[in-house]
């Protein structure tokens, strides 16, 4: 029986570690690109860096803690009596909500860029975007501070391989509030994205001649972001729906693991991955241009030597 448990623990750790490492790498690359690429040295780039940091926080804390709990096998590590177990829930869930709130500001940022292009730089300076990122993280962490109370704690259960709220009146309230806040945030983001899309389409119909040609590239980027945002919103909503419903469908631990822990990590991982995929052309152009520039400088250097 012990060997069977060890085998199951191994499967759980490998699955979590593989997905988490993928998420840390994808969000890490997204963070690197937004800080190094000239086209992201603006308010939008700072906001994208912010959600990458929030995602990395949640994934890293979750991976580290799950690995410790499964290997140590100490019941205290899954108990609300231990302060550290409650603190882990704050940092994991805080990273999730921080990322969600940043995406809300990104949707608002894109709407302002389309609806108020002349006032955009005043509305969204890099300093204001940084403040929005800090507010998002701080608000997410502050909301989740409630997990420090024993009856409201969010704990990782070593036996079921998933995070659970305390089975109490206050624990159930926290669970429902988390689900509700996530749905409200994503729906609000979707509403802002739809308004942005309407503005883009209206702009395309009114602009003609040379102005239409000059704005085509900009509209293409905005449409690309709209598709990315819609797909990401669907992933967040699907993850939340799965988390909300899996407890009512089955209590079997592998089902709860597959419908609880894994979708949560996958959603955060896909956030960074989708950013890389949808901005692949810009990334390629940026680094391709840099490489060509270096080659030209090298050739000029060789010529001057003769």
From TrEMBL:
<feature type="transmembrane region" description="Helical">
    <location>
        <begin position="129"/>
        <end position="149"/>
    </location>
</feature>
<dbReference type="GO" id="GO:0016020">
    <property type="term" value="C:membrane"/>
</dbReference>
<feature type="transmembrane region" description="Helical">
    <location>
        <begin position="230"/>
        <end position="249"/>
    </location>
</feature>
<feature type="domain" description="G-protein coupled receptors family 1 profile">
    <location>
        <begin position="26"/>
        <end position="203"/>
    </location>
</feature>
<feature type="transmembrane region" description="Helical">
    <location>
        <begin position="12"/>
        <end position="32"/>
    </location>
</feature>
<keyword id="KW-0812">Transmembrane</keyword>
<dbReference type="InterPro" id="IPR019430">
    <property type="entry name" value="7TM_GPCR_serpentine_rcpt_Srx"/>
</dbReference>
<feature type="transmembrane region" description="Helical">
    <location>
        <begin position="44"/>
        <end position="68"/>
    </location>
</feature>
<feature type="transmembrane region" description="Helical">
    <location>
        <begin position="88"/>
        <end position="108"/>
    </location>
</feature>
<dbReference type="InterPro" id="IPR017452">
    <property type="entry name" value="GPCR_Rhodpsn_7TM"/>
</dbReference>
<dbReference type="Pfam" id="PF10328">
    <property type="entry name" value="7TM_GPCR_Srx"/>
</dbReference>
<keyword id="KW-1133">Transmembrane helix</keyword>
<feature type="transmembrane region" description="Helical">
    <location>
        <begin position="169"/>
        <end position="195"/>
    </location>
</feature>
<protein>
    <submittedName>
        <fullName>G_PROTEIN_RECEP_F1_2 domain-containing protein</fullName>
    </submittedName>
</protein>
<feature type="transmembrane region" description="Helical">
    <location>
        <begin position="255"/>
        <end position="278"/>
    </location>
</feature>
<keyword id="KW-0472">Membrane</keyword>
